[in-house]
Amino acid sequence: MQVRWIPTILTFATISMAVLGGIAPLKQAQAQTATHSDDRRLPTSQAEMKMSFSPLVKQTAPTVVNIYTKKVVSERQRTPFFNDPFFKQFFGEQFGGAFGAPRQRVERSLGSGVIVSGDGTIVTNHHVIDGASEIRVVLHDNREFDADLVGSDERTDLAVLKLRGVETALPAITFGDSDAVEVGDLVLAIGNPFGVGQTVTSGIVSALARAGVTGQDYQSFIQTDAAINPGNSGGALIDIDGKLIGVNSAIFTKSGGSNGIGFAVPVNMVKVVMRGLISGDLRRPWVGASGQAVTADLASSLELDRPHGVLISAVRDGSPALRSGLQAGDVVVAVNGLPVDNPNELKFRIATLELDSAANLTVLRRGKEIKLSMPLEVAPERPAREESVIDGNNPFSGTKVSNMNPALADELGVDTLSEGVIILGVARDSLARRTRLQAGDYIVEINGEKIDSVARLKEVVKAGERSRDWKIAVKRDGKVLTGEFTL
């Protein structure tokens, strides 16, 4: 089984659009305020069961657009001989690159998007427009516009576009509240699957707070059984009131098509990222603590009535978590009254809140429930990164290194409690590449000397160049690896 992003590679440029009606909803949709749990009910008559999604589709479909992108890809023509070990032995790894003539080809793909403002502002997925040299948007009424990329955020798989030449206000979607969504709620998914034109599918919310679905580190997806297929990426997931509750992002598939398991980025995250991309200042609060989901065994040892919450294992000095009073051994069970059951969900809840305010944490400490107020701040740049490129005759020559700090850890999507010197990149054909160092390695020790900063790394490397023999230790994937080298 695999998780697959939704866009489809196409060989054509423009596709006609058609809207398919939904079937058998439980109540007629109309623009109104958000409903509460008590308003949800089963149909009470045959007449109610014959009601249609049509009014809801007419209200929302004009806000969903088709997005066509073009990307120029350069590749070299190669022959099977370039991968032959015999040729590599005599001509080296660069043999194929030296003889392969570069060739350019145009790669086209499609996705969907949602108009969120009458001035032509559109929200879609990052992977829909990633690397695109041209972006073309087709509206529900077949009007076409070129679009500019305002900004994108790979970590949440969201992007914002702005249409060029919009002269009259466009229909825009109304935002809902994804925190009010419940499993079993009726939803519609609108997009352009397989390039057949705008299509509407119906279903229910199958699950909430799904994590581990994609490579993004901010994950708390809405799961739905409404059919989502390639091309639906960036389309709208709407509730029965016609409000946007999520942006369709991924599917869980064995065959490449819909298997009834689709995932959408919750709209509360969409709103935060959209504001940050438009303002050019996308920053998120951080916690400054690490933890794990409470398993059945942990719940028993902690004397909890059931497995729930996040068990805090460590708290960083000076972090918002520490200043709120959070301690190792605490179990965080809710943020602003909303339950959290794993570290991803805790991180997501905090990331959707506004900076310079406070989050109310519900914590279980030695069997008693307490309330903590945690300030919401951006991860700090302490210590300074001191990004540097190491050169000279040493095993680290050709590496780009940096001091790890909370801000960098947050950017890289790693534990914000991480410390030390990290390798950010390794140049091709460098001594470091031959030493098999990798981006993401932490430099632990060189020739018996502990490395705790970039400045110390430079000192030890310079002193070590007097000898040809090197003994180094790096931490990779949580394991310390050692090696001896003679240059």
From TrEMBL:
It comes from the Bacteria. Residues 279-367, 411-454 form the PDZ domain. This is DegQ family serine endoprotease. It holds the Pfam family PDZ_2. SMART domains: PDZ. NCBIfam families: degP_htrA_DO. Keywords: Hydrolase, Protease, Repeat, Serine protease, Signal. SUPFAM superfamilies: PDZ domain-like, Trypsin-like serine proteases. Belongs to the peptidase S1C family.
